[in-house]
UniProtKB/TrEMBL annotation:
Span of domain NTP pyrophosphohydrolase MazG-like: 147-222
Example of a GO biological process term: dGTP catabolic process
Broad enzyme group: hydrolase
UniProt key word Kinase: no
The entry's keywords: Hydrolase
Protein name: Nucleoside triphosphate pyrophosphohydrolase
Record EC number: 3.6.1.9
UniProt keyword Manganese, yes or no: no
NCBIfam families: PRK12334.1-4
Coiled-coil residues: none
Molecular function as annotated in GO: methyltransferase activity; nucleoside triphosphate diphosphatase activity
Length: 324
C-alpha cells in the first residue's frame, strides 16, 4: 500500500519518454508532445544526429545531448522537476531497464514515468521502409543491382501463382508472406524503372497512376453516379475503361500469353458482358473441346483454371495414395 503523501509524490518529479516515428517528417509532433517539451525543466537526447533536434531547437526548446543512467535521471527529477527524454530510433532499452530495476528495488522514491508517442505511423507507413530497403539493395547487392525487367519477369509469374495457391489453401500466414513477395516485385520493378535514361518512373508514379485510375473508374464512389449491385459497378468499370483505352474491340487488352483456360474464359466473359452472341468455332481436337468447357464454366460463374487446379490436386492425392 502506498502511504506517501501527495507532496512527497510531487517532489519526486516526472520522466517523459518521448518516442517518434522516422516515417513521419521531423517536427510534425503531436500537441501533447509539444506541451510536454515546453513544460519540461530538462530535455535530453542521447543521439546528437537525431532528426528532431534541429526542429526542437528552432522552436526554442533547449536540448542537452546526454544519456544519463537511470539513477542520474531520478536525481534530475528530484524536487518535482520534469525531464523529457527524446528517444533514439532504437528506443532507450538501457534507461528503461534501469528505471525498472530501481522501481523494483523499493529503495528509491521513483518519479512518475510516462511514455508519450509524439508521432504515429499512418496506415501504409511501412511501405516507406520497403522502398528504402529496396533502394539500398539495388545499390549494394551484387545480384539485385544487375537485374532487369526482363530478368525478373519469371519471378512475377511464380509469385502470382504462389499467391493464388495460398488463397486456395486458406493458409493465412502463407497468404501474408506471398502478398509481400508480390509487393516486392512491384517495388523492385519500379526501382529499376527509375534508372531508365529515356522514360524513368518511380514507385510514386506507379502509385499515383493506380490512384487516378481507381478514382476515375469508381464514379459511384468518388463522383455523382450510383451503383447498388456488383453488376452495375462492373458496368461502370468497363465503360470508363473503354473510354480511357479508346478500344475498338472488347478483345483488346486481353493478354494472349496467359494460361489457355483463363484466356478462353476471359474472352467469353468479354463477349457476354458486351451482349455478343458468338458461336464457338468448330474444329477437331482437344483444344476446341477445352475451349467449350472453359466457356461453359465461365457462363456458370466458375473459374476454369481454379476448377482444374482443384481437380488436379485431387488427382495428385490419388497418386500419392496409390504410391503408399
Amino acid at each position: 500500500m502506498n502511504t506517501a503523501s501527495p507532496e512527497a509524490e510531487a517532489a519526486t518529479g516526472r520522466v517523459v519518454l518521448l518516442t517518434t516515428s522516422h516515417r513521419v517528417a521531423p517536427g510534425l509532433l503531436s500537441w501533447p508532445a509539444w506541451q510536454a517539451l515546453r513544460a519540461a525543466d530538462r530535455v535530453l537526447c542521447a543521439d546528437a544526429a537525431h532528426p528532431q533536434l534541429p526542429y526542437l531547437r528552432e522552436a526554442g526548446i533547449a536540448v542537452d545531448e546526454a544519456s544519463p543512467a537511470a539513477e542520474d535521471l531520478v536525481d534530475l527529477c528530484a524536487g518535482g522537476h520534469t525531464v523529457v527524454v527524446v528517444a533514439t530510433a532504437e528506443g532507450e532499452p538501457a534507461l528503461t531497464d534501469g528505471l525498472a530495476r530501481l522501481a523494483g528495488s523499493g529503495r528509491v522514491a521513483m518519479p512518475e514515468l510516462e511514455l508519450l508517442p509524439a508521432s504515429y505511423d499512418l496506415p501504409g507507413a511501412r511501405l516507406l521502409d520497403l522502398v528504402q530497403v529496396m533502394d539500398r539493395i539495388r545499390v549494394a547487392c551484387p545480384w539485385s543491382s544487375r537485374q532487369t525487367h526482363q530478368g525478373l519477369a519469371k519471378y512475377g509469374i511464380e509469385e502470382a501463382y504462389e499467391l493464388v495457391e495460398a488463397i486456395e489453401d486458406g493458409d493465412r500466414d502463407e497468404l501474408r508472406e506471398e502478398l509481400g513477395d508480390v509487393l516486392l516485385q512491384v517495388v523492385f520493378h519500379a526501382r529499376i524503372a527509375e534508372e531508365d535514361p529515356q522514360a524513368p518512373f518511380s514507385v510514386d508514379d506507379v502509385a499515383a497512376g493506380i490512384v487516378t485510375k481507381l478514382i476515375h473508374r469508381h464514379p459511384h464512389v468518388f463522383g455523382d453516379e450510383t451503383a447498388s449491385t456488383p453488376e452495375e459497378v462492373k458496368e461502370h468499370w468497363l465503360r470508363t475503361k473503354a473510354e480511357e483505352k479508346r478500344r475498338t474491340s472488347v478483345t483488346e487488352g486481353i493478354p494472349v500469353h496467359q494460361p489457355g483456360l483463363a484466356l478462353a474464359a476471359k474472352l467469353a466473359s468479354r463477349a457476354r458482358t458486351a451482349g455478343l452472341d458468338v458461336p464457338l468455332p468448330q474444329g477437331d481436337g482437344i483444344g476446341y473441346e477445352l475451349l467449350a468447357l472453359a466457356v461453359r464454366a465461365e457462363s456458370q460463374g466458375v473459374d476454369p483454371e481454379a476448377a482444374l487446379r482443384a481437380a488436379a490436386r485431387a488427382y495428385r492425392d490419388a497418386i500419392r495414395a496409390a504410391e503408399d
